[in-house]
Amino acid sequence: MTLEDIKHEVRALTVEQRKQLIAFIVDSLTEAEGEEKPHNILDFEGIAAHQADGEDPQDYVDRLRSEWDDRP
Q1: Cβ(37)–Cβ(31) below 8 Å
Q2: What residues make up the domain containing 2?
């Protein structure tokens, strides 16, 4: 697809679609190449699920540390 083809397609878009396209292009220009995008909050689903079980945080840390001592 050539630039002229793209221009032709853009002209066929509604004003709202053109605004969305402009926003997309601007966002793509401000992203550094190779830079990771911020995580979505849903990416963290299930992390630290133990916190929901009511266990005291210090007891949890103490238990983890004691498990380290038991490893061969």
Answers
A1: yes
A2: 1-31
Residue 36 maps to a domain: no
Note whether residue 49 is domain-resident. Answer: no
**1 found inside a domain:** yes
Q: Is the dihedral of CA 61, 65, 70, 72 positive or negative?
A: positive
pLDDT, tens digit (0-9, with 9 covering 90-100), for 18-57: 999 999 988 888 766 666 777 788 878 777 766 667 788 8
- CB under 8 Å to 37, separation ≥6 — which residues? 31
Residue 16's pLDDT band (cuts 50, 70, 90): very high
Does residue 2 lie in a domain region? yes
pTM of the model: 0.42
